[in-house]
Amino acid sequence: MLANHLYKKLSISHSNYSIKTAISFFNISLNLLIIINMLHLLEDAKYLFTNHSPIKEQFLLIFNGNKPLNTVSHYLSINMYDLSNACIISIIMMSVLSIIIPINWKPLPLIISFLLYQMFVRTYTEFYVYGYDSYVLMSYIYLILLFSFKDKISEILFFNVFRLHVSISYLISGLTKIAGFNWWNGESIWKAIHLYYLSNNNFWEYYDKLPDYFFIISGWIVMIVQLSMPLLLIHTLRRYTTILLYMNLLIHCFIGIFLNLPFFASIMIIWNVTAFYFYDKF
Amino acid sequence: MSKLKYALSKLICILIFFLFSYNGFIISAISICEFYYDQKELSNNLLYQFLCKLSNNKALYVLSSYTGFDTGYGFFAPNVASDCVIKIKILDKNNHIIEEGYIDNFIKFKRRESYIRFWGYTKKFVDLLDSLKQDSISIKLTDIYIKQICRCVYNERNDTNNIDHFESSVYIFDYPKLSERKYKGNEISLYEIRKIYVSKSSLQKIIY
Questions:
Q1: Which among A62, A188, A204 is the nearest to B76, CB-wise?
Q2: SS3 labels along B45-64
Q3: What is the pLDDT at residue B130?
Q4: CB spacing of B78 vs A197 below 8 angstroms
């Protein structure tokens, strides 16, 4: 009933949208997020991504083991300490440029900011990096591909691969969650909101008042929503599955609030909205 | 020309599809195997060894790590990993404590996100609980990590003349479970997994 009502409301507003709107939304929101994140990191970046960090660059070679070190600055032997502010400001400028300039020129600032991000922020494979960074890099690649192949067929191809990527990633996540028995009895949700570094400890006293079955049910909701995300790809089932998208967005909002991962949550919201909100029959 | 462009875009699509599904499925399969089975059982398992060989492929690793496709998609799955906490005691010659506390009090960042970035690696210290991995290289890596942090703390302090050595230990941070909360309450317990003493002279040897 509710899903039907939502679908009727949405289908009217969606009929005029096309794949172009989704791409422009993706571009603008991603670049705004990167600007905010870069301004957020501006003061600490010197002590994280350069040779003045707690773990020196020379030691990272040991930690990496057999795998090759993933840093451009290492191969070029540049001292990034003096360049850190310049790097961050140029990433911000490139993001502003890629929002403003016309479509034909958009790949250029995106490629430059991809390289800068790769070189400066995501320098080491296991240190000072978390899931957010790889999502930023992947979205840069999708944007560069979508803006450089402008004909309609390849645009649809890339966009469908992007939607497959989003839905399959949730499917994998749901499958791994259902394989672990702690997700069945609510222990995992309880543990995730009580981690030392990741969880937001301002809310810890309020969790005690909630009953046990609240955590069990919320764990099952997370698993069911994530397992059924691929259903959003099927157009004929669309009127029953729009609710899934909104549930998923809600889950990510909670992740942003109750865990210390606001940037990761917002990039996942951006991915979900671009993939499934601007829906059209291609 | 347009045909060539179309073929190119098809090829890129297939490559992207291959990269994300390859990384996602393999990483989650390995994590499920390691969650349910002991390292001893897995060393005889052919399927697990095949998966490990696939994930250690150098060419695919470089390709996927430079493009960002190297993430796994098991967010907090199959199980939520514990956080490790490092405590540091700064001691003088007579073993009197000059200062002690969690590492957050010594290394100061301005933003919360920087701490999340900084502590990403400490989750690997949980591996030390596995008895088979205790003699291996992971203990040495932990020691190097702790020594580096001690050096960082030492360099930032003004009263370096009083300091004799550091006593630093890694704990697993354990909050009571959902089933235990009725009789345990909010009592947080810390389990020590590694403890080392770092002398001042060894820190001064490290030049940079």
A1: A188
A2: CHHHHHHHHHHCCHHHHHHH
A3: 72
A4: no
CB contact under 8 A, A135 and B6: no
| Phi, psi for residue A210 in degrees, rounded to 5 | -80, 145
The answer to whether the Cβ–Cβ distance between B121 and A126 falls below 8 Å is yes
**Percent of chain A scoring above 90 in pLDDT:** 50
Which residues on chain A are in Cβ contact (under 8 Å) with B112? 260
Cα separation, A280 vs B121, whole angstroms: 42
Contact of B190 with chain A, judged by CB distance below 8 Å, is answered with no
**Could you report the predicted ipTM of this complex, rounded to two decimals?**
0.89
Pairwise CA distance, residues A25 & A11, whole Å: 18
Segment B39-62 shows an average pLDDT of 84
| pLDDT recorded at residue A11 | 45
Kindly state the tokens that stand for A233. 């790809």
The number of C-alpha atoms within 13 Å of A120 and in the hemisphere containing its C-beta is: 24
Q: Is the dihedral of CA B14, B15, B20, B22 positive or negative?
A: positive
Query: Is-contact A5 A268, C-beta < 8 A?
Result: no
Mean pLDDT (whole number) for B14-27:
91
Which pTM was predicted?
0.90
| Segment 64-123 of chain B within 8 Å of chain A by CB | 65-80, 82-83, 85, 107, 109-121
